[in-house]
Structure to design on (675 residues):
């Protein structure tokens, strides 16, 4: 018997019991939609977390926090560590920064700011892909680069608290409006008080560049990037490593050559895992977005599997309806099945017709369920944030996605739906093949 | 065409554990030649319908063997017998056994569909059969919209549409009036003459038995006579 004719048989059979078939398809569709919507929450939240993590960090970046010494304690990183990291295959650049251990005051014209100051190795920063918003990288020792938001915090010396808005940001009218690039700025560092008077030193520096705007709207960069030579000058003035303001508790430690912020950049995303592994094996404390992604994905995979399992229960319940529908169909059509067998229908063909019928219910149910699930997902993503914002009077995080339905989820749901419906149609189909021809023709079945 | 050798059959009746053996057919042997019309006659309960069901493969014999078209059909699996029936046998039943939800056309077309024939060829053969049984104008009628005679004609058309070498008929005129019965018997003889189809007809009606080349009488499960040439 041709496949087309089998479908035609199924069509005729379904036509005979439209309402019953429709109700069974509806139950299957609801089960399938429930599964997809439930699991889509896992997928949606995972996507939100992953996107958020990826947006905040450069994916090829590995943070190295320290090196485990023989005593088990983590040691700060030194030049020899940097050299080792640069020698690893697949490493594009190793950036290193030293933090100045005080907040110098920077002054330009009548405006001033206390800013975090770091010493960056500009050649390695350049290799890592650093781009400036404006200007160029320093060439001379007294040249500096400032953060994108540096100017937003430069304020007039005489201004009081009124210059800040509710969020603690400098009001626009008080912000520095002139150009920074090419201007000379005075950096004043302190080494504490001596005989009741604060001892300071002012170093004139030239602004030559401004960093790119941070990738996230809520992030700010108001740092000042100085050269190693300027740090040496500050250290010479304070007499301490990294410009620490000495007090009575200060103990001189030779950590002037250690780095506070070291980042390894892989040439590509595929290399990150291997480099991280090598660094971990060499007892470095590392962190990369890839390792975080791994943990996030493992966690969400477990959550999604749980949600799919719960959703599958809905389909299993719907399958009871399919079993019932198919059993009734076999019972009702027993005389017809008997006649068909008598005139030469192969039991295999009869079984296939009934299996096709239950599969048809499963497929149509899965298609309707998927369409409904997409609709629900759309409503959830557009409506739920509004409801939550209204209910709690709080803005939800940007890009938050409650529900996401990737093609894999649809395939999983349709697969489960089909499997369950075929299994539930199996027994009635087998029963159809076992129908006794003589009893069926005598209407005794 | 058909060879039945020492065929015996019994039914087990009663509840489980208290079953009794009820012999129905005892040591039946006969042979039917190709192109013959053979009537099997006997009283009700003599075992003639059981004999037909055994030849049809609807039940398996307790003993003995059946050969059809030089093939030993005894021991065939259900699936094997289904394929064999489709290719070699046609059936005419007393109660027509048409599928009520299908039209006359669809009922006749059914064996062709099971054989996997393409739709165009099926349509052609079905129309041809409808024409042959004089029901071309009733092709879209459901069985409930046809008279008994017309339904039996549809049943015959369905049995003949694949042009099987053997037709097994169980009381084919049992549900018909005498006029329709005469028409049908004439039609069977015509088919036998024109197509050379072999007919094995179960009946208790002398008129039906009368169209056969010979008749076999069964009484109390035993074959009484064989070979009465008419």
């Amino acid at each position: 018997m041709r496949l087309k004719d089998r479908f035609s048989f199924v069509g005729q059979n379904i036509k005979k019991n439209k309402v019953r078939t429709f109700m069974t398809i509806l139950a299957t569709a609801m089960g399938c939609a429930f599964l997809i919507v439930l699991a889509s929450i896992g997928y949606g939240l995972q996507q939100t977390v992953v996107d958020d993590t990826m947006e905040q960090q450069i994916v090829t970046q590995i943070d190295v926090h320290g090196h485990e010494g023989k005593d088990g304690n983590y040691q700060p990183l030194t030049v020899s560590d940097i050299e080792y990291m640069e020698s690893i295959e697949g490493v594009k650049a190793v950036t290193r920064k030293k933090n100045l251990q005080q907040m110098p005051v920077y002054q330009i014209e009548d405006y001033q700011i206390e800013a975090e100051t770091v010493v960056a190795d500009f050649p390695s920063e350049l290799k890592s892909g650093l781009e400036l918003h404006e200007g160029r990288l320093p060439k001379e020792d007294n040249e500096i680069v400032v953060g994108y938001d540096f100017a937003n915090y430069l304020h007039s010396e005489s201004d009081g608290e009124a210059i800040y808005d509710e969020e603690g940001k400098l009001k626009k009218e008080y912000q520095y409006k002139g150009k920074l690039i090419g201007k000379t700025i005075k950096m004043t560092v302190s080494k504490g008080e001596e005989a009741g008077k604060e001892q300071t030193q002012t170093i004139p520096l030239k602004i030559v560049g401004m960093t790119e705007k941070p990738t996230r709207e809520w992030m700010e960069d108001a740092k000042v990037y100085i050269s190693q030579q300027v740090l040496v000058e500050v250290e010479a003035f304070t007499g301490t490593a990294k410009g620490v303001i000495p007090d009575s508790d200060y103990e001189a430690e030779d950590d002037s050559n250690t780095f506070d912020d070291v980042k390894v950049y892989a040439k590509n995303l595929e290399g990150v895992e291997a480099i991280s592994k090598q660094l971990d094996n060499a007892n470095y404390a590392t962190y990369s977005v890839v390792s975080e992604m791994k943990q996030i994905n493992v966690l969400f995979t477990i959550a999604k599997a749980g949600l799919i399992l719960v959703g599958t229960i809905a389909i299993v319940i719907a399958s009871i309806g399919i079993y019932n529908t198919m059993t009734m169909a076999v019972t009702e059509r027993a005389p017809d099945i008997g006649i068909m067998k008598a005139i030469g229908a192969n039991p295999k063909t009869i079984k296939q017709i009934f299996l096709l019928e239950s599969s048809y219910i499963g497929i149509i149910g899965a298609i309707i369920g998927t369409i409904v699930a997409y609709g629900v997902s759309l409503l959830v993503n557009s409506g739920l944030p509004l409801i939550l914002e209204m209910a709690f009077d709080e803005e939800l995080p940007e890009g938050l996605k409650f529900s996401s339905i990737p093609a894999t989820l649809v395939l999983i749901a349709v697969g489960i739906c089909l499997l369950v419906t075929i299994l539930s149609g199996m027994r009635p189909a087998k029963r159809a093949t076992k129908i006794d021809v003589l009893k069926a023709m005598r209407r005794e079945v | 065409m058909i060879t039945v050798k020492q065929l015996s059959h019994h039914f087990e009746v009663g509840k489980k554990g208290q079953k009794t053996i009820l012999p129905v057919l005892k040591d039946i042997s006969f042979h039917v030649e190709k192109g013959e019309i053979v009537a099997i006659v006997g009283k009700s309960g003599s075992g003639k319908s059981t004999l037909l069901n055994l030849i049809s493969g609807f039940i398996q014999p307790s003993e003995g063997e059946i050969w059809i078209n030089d093939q030993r059909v005894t021991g065939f699996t259900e699936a094997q017998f289904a394929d064999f029936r489709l290719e070699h046998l046609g059936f005419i039943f007393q109660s027509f056994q048409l599928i009520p939800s299908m039209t006359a056309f669809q009922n006749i077309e059914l064996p062709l569909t099971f054989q996997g024939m393409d739709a165009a060829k099926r349509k052609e053969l079905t129309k041809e059969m409808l024409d042959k049984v004089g029901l071309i104008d009733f092709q879209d009628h459901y069985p409930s919209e046809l008279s008994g005679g017309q339904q039996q004609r549809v049943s015959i058309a369905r049995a003949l549409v694949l042009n099987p070498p053997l037709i097994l008929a169980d009381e084919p005129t049992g549900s018909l009036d005498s006029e329709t019965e005469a028409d049908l018997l004439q039609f069977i003889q015509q088919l036998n003459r024109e197509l050379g189809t072999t007919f094995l007809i179960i009946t208790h009606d002398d008129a039906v038995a009368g169209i056969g080349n010979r008749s076999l009488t069964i009484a109390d499960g035993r074959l009484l006579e064989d070979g009465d040439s008419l």
User: Anything to note?
Assistant: Chain B has seven helices and ten strands. Chain B has a mean pLDDT of 90. The helical segments of chain B are 48-56, 78-88, 104-115, 119-132, 148-160, 178-195, 206-209. The longest helix of chain B spans residues 178-195.
